[in-house]
Amino acid sequence: MNYALLAPEITLAIVAVVILAIGLMIPKGPHKGMVPLTILGLLLTMGVTGGQFAANVHGTFLNGMYYADNYASFFKLLFLTAALLVVLSSTEYVQKLPAHRGEFYALILFAALGMMIMAGSGDLITLYIGLETMTISFYVLVAYLTEDGKSSEAGLKYLILGAVSSAVLLYGISFVYGLTGSTVIAEVASSLGSSISPAIILALVMVLVGFAFKISLIPFHMWAPDIYEGAPTPVTAYLAVASKAAGFAALTRVFLIGFQQQVYGGSPEVVLAVLIAVTMIAGNLMAIPQKSFKRMMAYSSIAQAGYLAIGLLAGDQAGVKAVLFYAMIYVFANMGAFTVATLIANAQGSDQIKDFAGLARRSPFAAAVMLISLLSLAGIPPLAGFVGKFYLFSAVINQGWVSLAYIGFVMSMVSVYYYLSVVKTMYMEPGEGLPKIGLGGASKFTLFVTMIVTLFIGIYPTPLAQMAISAAKSLIR
Amino acid sequence: MPQYGSGLFVSIAHLIRGLFGGTTVTADVVMTVINSLIIWALIALAALSLILLERKVAGWMQLRTGPNRLGPRGWFQTVADAMKLLGKEDIFPAAADKWVFGLAPMFVIGLSVMVMAVIPYGKGMVPVDLNVGIFYLLAVSALTTIPFFMAGWGSNNKFALLGGMRAVAQMISYEIPLVFSLLGVVMITQTFKMSAIVNAQSHVWFILLQPLGFVVYTIAATAETNRAPFDLVEGESELTAGAFTEYTGMRWALFFLGEYANLFIVSAVAATVFLGGWQGPFLPGWIWFAIKVLFMVFLFLWFRWTFPRLRVDQLMHFGWKVLLPLSVANILLTGVGIYIYQLIYPAIGG
Amino acid sequence: MGNIGGGLVFLVFALVTVFSAYLVISSRNIIHSALFLILTFIGVAALYAMLDADFLAMVQLLVYAGAISIMVVFGVMLTLRGGPENSNGDTRNAIGGAIAALLTFVVLGMVIFTNSAWLTTGTGISGGSTVSDVSWLLLTKYVVPFEVAAVLLLVAMVGAIILAKGVDDSK
Known about the structure:
- The complex is a heterotrimer of chains A (477), B (350) and C (171).
- Chain A has 21 helices and 2 strands.
- Chain A has 477 residues and is mostly helical.
- Chain B has 14 helices and no strands.
- Chain B has helices at residues 8-19, 25-61, 77-87, 98-116, 133-142, 145-154, 158-189, 194-199, 206-209, 211-224, 236-239, 249-273, 285-304, 312-344.
- In chain B, helix 4 runs antiparallel to helix 6 (145-154).
- Chain B is an all-alpha fold and 350 residues long.
- The longest helix of chain B is centred in the first third of the chain and has 37 residues, at 25-61.
- Chain C has helices at residues 3-26, 30-50, 54-79, 94-114, 130-139, 143-165.
- By secondary structure, chain C is mostly helical.
- Chain C is built from 6 helices and no strands.
- Chains in contact: A-C, B-C.
- Chain A binds chain C through residues 6, 13, 16-17, 20, 28, 61-63, 65-66, 98-100, 103, 106-107, 110, 113-114, 117, 121, 123, 125-126, 128-130, 132-133, 136-137, 139-140, 143-144, 146-147, 155, 178-181, 195, 197-199, 202, and chain C through 107-108, 110-112, 114-115, 117-119, 121, 140-145, 148-149, 151-152, 154-156, 158-159, 162-163, 165-167, 170-171.
C-alpha cells in the first residue's frame, strides 16, 4: 500500500480538521485570520495535487479501490480552485454571517475533500462515502443562515431530495454488487464483460438517476432552483460549479470504466441522449422568465449540465477531454458571475436581476467581469466558453450525434437572450438610489482572476487543453 | 453449545441432555426451555433478594435496622410485598395509549431475559455462547430505552412523559461511554465471545489492565440502570415517579423486577469482563461468580446511598464532556499498550 | 434445525418485518408509526442473523433499533403539536401511491426473478467469524472509505450542532 498516493486527500483532511479546531479556539470575533489560513491550506493541497499531476503519477490503491491518476488530479485541482475562489469571494459575506464563521471554512474544505474522494474512487462504496461527505457538508452550508426561512427551507429540501437520490443510487449499487460480486469499478467491468440483461439495465438506470439528481439533469432538477435561491450566495456558487463537476467526475469514471460496453451502443445511451436534449432545451427555456438572478443561474447551470453531459455521451478521449476542459472554465465563468452576485447581495441584501441596475456606473469593474462571465457561459467567441462548447460539440458529432450538437447550438443562442438581459440591466438601466458597490481586496482579486482566466483561455486554450488531454488519456488508455 | 467442564450444574445439564439423546434437536429444545425457565427464576430470585439487600444495606448505612418484622430478621418482607403487588388492581388510565402502556413493562422484562441468556454463570454455564456475545448484550440492552419511552408516552401524563424523555436522553448519552469502556477489553482479547473473555483472564483480571475502563463502566452502568445519583428518571421530589407514575399492581411490579434484573445484569457484566468471571481458586466457578456479582451489587448500592442526585444539565455535561472523552482516551491508551506489548512479545496477538 | 424449520422462521420474521413496515405508513398515530419502525428494524436484524451475518445483525439492533429510532421518537416528540391522534398526515394519495408502489414492485420483481445470474457466496472471506472478516476488510481493502466515513461523521456532527444551535448563543 502506497499511502503517498493519498497525499492530497490526507493533506486536505488535516488542514480541514486544523481549521475546525482553530475556529473553536478563537470563539469570538470576526474570524478574519481564518481566511488566509484556509487559503494557505488550499494552496498547500493544490501544490501536492499539482505535483502529482506534473509527475504524471498513475497509481491505484488496493487493486483499483482508489485511483491517483491525472484524471483524478485534474478534477481535484478543479475542486480546490473552486473552493479557493469561493473562500476568497465570500470573505466579506462571511463577516456578515450571524454565527459559526469559523466552521464555514472548515465545511467548505470538507466538501472539497468529499469531491476529491469522488474523483479518485475506483470503488462504488468509496464513491458513495465521498458523495455523502460532500452532500452533508452542503446540507449544512445551504441551511447556514439559520434565521433566514428561505435558507432553512432550501437546506431541508436539499436534505430530503438528496437522501432520496442517494437511496436510489445505493439501490443501484446493490444490484451491481449482486450481479458482479464486486463494487470495484474495474472488477465490475471485467465481471460483466459485454453481457446485458434487464437487471443490468435496471442497475444502470438507478445509478444514472442517482447521479442525475446530483448534476441536475432534467427531470431530476426540481431541487436546483429553490436551493440555489435559498442558499447563501457563495454556497450557491460552490454548489453550482464544484458539486456538479464532482458528480461528472464520478459518473464519467463509472460509465466509461465500469459499464462502457453496457452503456455505449445500447439503449442506455439513447436514454442519456434524450435526457441531455431535454435538459438543454428545457433548462434554457425555463431560465428566460426568471426574475431572481440566482434562480436564473440555477436554470442556466441545469442547461450547462446538459452541455457537459454531451461529452459523457461521446464517451471517448475527446469527449472526456471536452468535459474536463469545460468543467474547468465553467468554474471561472460561474465564479465570476457569482462573486458579483455576492457583492450585490452583501450591499443590497437581495438577488433580483433588477438589483443589478446601473452596476456599470456603480462599479464598472464588477459589471465588466459579469459581462465577460455571462458571455463565456453563453459561449460567445473569443471567450473560454466558446472553446469549451466547440470541444464538446465536435466530440459528440464525431460519435454521430449531430442532432444533439444542433440542439446545443440553438439553445446556446437562446441562452444569450437571458444572459444579455442581465447585461442590459447593468448597462442600460440607471439604477437610481442604489448604493455604490465597494470592492474588498479579496473580491477584487477573485474577479480579476476569473476575468483573466476566462479571457486568456478563450484566446489561448492550448495549455488547459493539454492538461485535459493528459487527464483524459489517463482515464481511457 | 457450551463446553463441558466439571461442576454440579454442568453435570446435571449433561445428564438431561443424555436423556434426550445428546445432540439431537429434541435435546436442544429441551435445554433451551430449561435454560429460559432458570433465567426467569433467576430474575425473580435476584429481584426479591436484591430488594431486600438494598433495604438492609440502606438501613445499615443510615444506622437503622431496615425491614425486621416478617420472618427471621425480616427476610420475608419482599416476598410479602410481591404478594401484595400481585393482588392489586391493574389500572389503565382513561387517557392512556392502551397498547403502548400495557406492553411497556413486558418489554422491559423480556429484554432482561434476552440479555441474561449470554452471561457466563460458571465454567460451561453459558446458556447461549454467541460469537458476538458481549456485542449482543450491548445491542439488546440499548433497546431498554424503548419500553421506558413507551411507558412515558403511553401513560399520557406529564410526569410520565418528562420521566420517559429523561430516561431516553440519559440512557442514550451513557450508552456510548458504556460501550466504549468495554471496547478496551475486546481489543485485548480480540473476541466478543463471553466465555473467551473469561478464559482470557485466567492469569490477570482485566480490572488491572483496564482500570480506567472499569471506572467508566461502573459510572455509566449506574446511569444506565437509572440508579442514584443518576435517578432523575424517577426523581420522586420533582416527577412523582417518572415514567412509572401511572402504573399499578403487576405492571408496576414488572418494572421493578426489570430494574433489579438490570442491576444484576450490569453487575454480572462487570464481574465477567473486569473481575475474571467465574475464575477463582478452591470454590466452584458459579460461587465465585455469585460472590463477584454481589460485590458489584454492593458497590452500586453504596453509590446509591452515598451520592446526592445530579441535575439534568450536570448529568448531560458529565456524560458527554467527561465520561465520553475518558472512554475514548481509554481506547487510545489500550491501542498504544497493545502495540507496545506486541513490540516486546511479537509472537502474541494479531 | 432443518430446512423446513429455517424456512418457517424466515417466514415469520419476514412477515413481521413487512407487516410492521406497512403499519408504519398506515398508522394514524405517528408515535405508533415510530414504534412499528423499531419493530421493522428488529425484524431486519433477525433476517441478518439468519443469514449468518451476526455482527451486522447486532449493528442493526444497536444503531437502528437502539439509536436511530430513538432519534426519530425524539424528533416526533419535539415537533408534535396537539394530540397524537391523526398526527400522521393524510392519506389522500394512498391510491396513487399504492399504484406506484405496485408498479415498482412488479418491475423489480420481474427483473429480480427473471435474472439467473445473481452471485451468491457460501463462505466468508477468511472463513473466520463475521466479526473478524468485517474488521479485516474494513482495515485493509476498505480502509479509504472507512477513514472517509470517520470524516463524514465528524462533518455530520459539526453540521448538526451548527444547525441545532442556530445563532442565539454562539456569536
